[in-house]
Specification:
heterodimer, A: alpha/beta, Rossmann fold, Alpha-Beta Plaits, 2 domains, B: 12 helices, about 0% strand, globular
């Protein structure tokens, strides 16, 4: 028997006054799936998470989380979910342990259970030595780790994470991602996570790319990239405008503007690359690599994430 | 049920831990009322006519307890605005608990902090020459608790409507100070002109301070500095105020559109597209949602 989806959303939208933050979103997330919700700032990611976690009621459409309607049966939804917000919800004047204890009390865990889980969470995130230190003295990465620990302390079956790696350095980001993958693998937890670091989302089982409150692409990261072509040929130059026409002429393909200059997406670089070699004589560098999720996004929206 | 108690304990423990760590707040607890007692007390003593044997400062003392409670509960309300956006109250709102639990938990801790701060100033009773019985002291404690709870619930209604703590100056100028000056904390309300009397009576702090004045001035001859209402009337008003405001705050606390719903201005949610019910074999299948969007069609042609 096929399992019911962990998250099912149909035509979900939300307006703030006359501003349409989320237009109409349809998606299904399966139990145990690691789902990435990607898009630029202001695409409606946080609004969607707020609706799915019962903090905000939708203007239209429907959403069911763990089989329960987010509006009609909000309490049943909240029993199944853990949420890690974009902004920290820690109390800076309390210690790490006190912050976690606040949460175990909230979920009515017994004293013994509470202690065991707090010990485990602190160890898992490498915070055991700082358990009696006030959170005010913590670095950004440590605070984030503690936020994460608190979001999963009650062992929810579905965890929502809004930009869990925002503002962290690459090392910290890698650690958070490694932990999330472990959570899915070991506990079968469903993860729904937003990020605007597109390049980070490769470990996701599936990703949805959102723009202007709508899903513009949905699929496995590899699948999305394959749709673009297996190879990406980069023409590195400071003057992309000069080379735009000649790339188009030489390859018969529409080049995409990128930070390094121009890119074309092809299925087999070996057949196209030789055609572009004359450009090296004019001062451009030509190289082959693979498409990234960032490329998928640029292709779909016609703009780079930074410009968005 | 155990979850609700657990949540209230969680919030109360957190508030008390914070209070005990914030030394500045503790200092302010003592400094503000003492300033009023010593400076304002000395000045007003010369201005407010007395007919009985109660001194002006003895009359002022319940007013100061009222002030402590008012400032404490309103500051807690302010902190709640921050907590809801960036703090632990946010955790409470996604925990499997009804919204009113957040309001009740916050009101209880707010009231508790008000009581603690007032009790820290209890030595002033003896310093000012009052000699209440133990029973009267307990009565005073009860009066402070009830007033704190009523004002705490008012604070929650305000917190549920405030979007940012920047509005606090407005709250202070247009709510806290008027409430304090109209409440008979500083002078008998009978000294105020007739057109202000309805406001005096609409001010919950009036009844709180009146209720505190009963046990402290009992057995003395206060003349014009006595109480204005009976104990049972004060209690009735405060209980009603607390009940109504907690109910209102619970309705308002969740999210911004709740007020619209109460005023019936929000149109019903259109439900054009419905998800299939789980009973109808809601399983893993190719749904419209999983359909990949066609690529390459819309390459920018600039």
């Amino acid at each position: 028997m096929a399992a019911a989806p962990a998250i099912a959303v149909a035509g979900l939208g939300r307006d703030y006054g006359r501003v349409r933050a989320v237009d109409a979103i349809d998606l299904e997330v399966q139990p145990g799936e690691f789902f990435g919700f990607l898009g630029p700032n202001g695409a409606g990611k946080t609004t969607t998470i707020r609706m799915l976690t019962t903090l905000l009621s939708p203007s239209r459409g429907e959403a069911r989380v763990a089989g329960s309607d987010v509006v009609d049966d909000a309490l049943a939804v909240r029993r199944q979910i853990g949420v890690v917000f974009q902004e920290t919800t820690l109390d800076l004047d309390l210690t790490a342990e006190e912050n976690l204890r606040f949460c175990t009390r909230l979920y009515g865990l017994s004293r013994r259970e509470s202690k065991a889980r707090i010990d485990e969470a602190l160890r898992l995130f490498g915070l055991s030595e700082r358990r009696h230190a006030r959170v005010r003295s913590f670095s950004g990465g440590m605070r984030r780790a503690l936020d994460l620990a608190r979001g999963i302390l009650h062992r929810p079956s579905i965890v929502f994470l809004d930009e869990p790696t925002l503002g962290l350095d690459p090392g910290q980001r890698r650690r958070i991602w490694a932990f999330l993958q472990k959570l899915v693998a070991e506990h079968g937890t469903t993860l729904f996570l937003t990020t605007h670091y597109l390049e980070e989302a490769d470990p996701c089982d599936r990703v949805a790319i959102v723009d202007h409150g709508q899903i513009v692409a949905l699929g496995q990261p590899d699948e999305l990239k394959r749709n673009l072509g297996r190879d990406r040929i980069d023409v590195r130059t400071e003057r992309p405008d000069v080379f735009l026409a000649s790339v188009r002429e030489l390859t018969g393909l529409e080049p995409q503007r990128a930070q390094h200059g121009l890119s074309v997406f092809v299925d087999d670089a070996a057949t196209v690359l030789p055609k572009l070699l004359p450009l090296t004589a004019q001062g451009a560098e030509v190289g082959v690599t693979h498409p990234t999720l960032e490329d998928v996004f640029v292709d779909l929206t016609g703009r780079s994430r930074e410009a968005a | 049920m155990s979850g609700i108690v657990g949540a209230i304990v969680a919030v109360v423990v957190r508030e008390l831990t914070r209070f005990q760590r914030q030394r500045g707040r503790l200092v302010a607890t003592f400094a503000r009322p003492l300033l009023w007692l010593i400076v304002i007390g000395a000045g007003f003593e010369k201005l407010v006519p007395t007919e009985g044997t109660v001194s002006y400062k003895q009359f002022l003392l319940p007013g100061l307890y009222g002030m402590v409670v008012l400032f404490s509960t309103m500051l807690t309300a302010l902190a709640t605005v921050h907590d809801r956006e960036f703090g632990p109250i946010r955790m409470l709102l996604v925990a499997p608990l009804p919204r009113f639990v957040a309001v009740i938990a916050k009101t209880i801790s707010s009231a508790l902090l008000g009581v603690i701060q007032a009790v820290l100033l209890f030595p002033l009773i003896w310093i000012l020459g009052l000699r209440p019985s133990l029973g009267a002291l307990l009565e005073l404690l009860g009066a402070i608790a009830l007033a704190s709870f009523a004002l705490g619930s008012l604070g929650m209604v305000i917190a549920s409507r405030l979007r940012s703590i920047e509005n606090f100056a407005g709250i202070m100028n247009f709510l806290m100070f008027p409430m304090f000056f109209l409440s008979s904390a500083l002078y008998p309300a009978s000294l105020l002109p007739g057109f202000l009397q309805p406001l005096v009576r609409a001010d919950p702090l009036t009844y709180g301070i009146d209720l505190m004045r009963h046990p402290l001035l009992r057995g003395l001859y206060p003349g014009n500095l006595g109480t204005d209402y009976t104990i049972s009337f004060d209690v009735l008003v405060l209980v009603l105020v607390a009940a109504v405001l907690i109910a209102l705050a619970s309705l308002l606390f969740g999210e911004e559109e709740h007020l619209g719903r109460i005023l019936l201005v929000e149109p019903p949610r259109p439900r054009g597209r419905r998800l299939p019910r789980p009973a109808l074999g809601f399983g893993r299948r190719e749904s419209a949602a999983a359909k990949p969007v066609p690529f390459r069609e819309a390459s920018p042609a600039d």
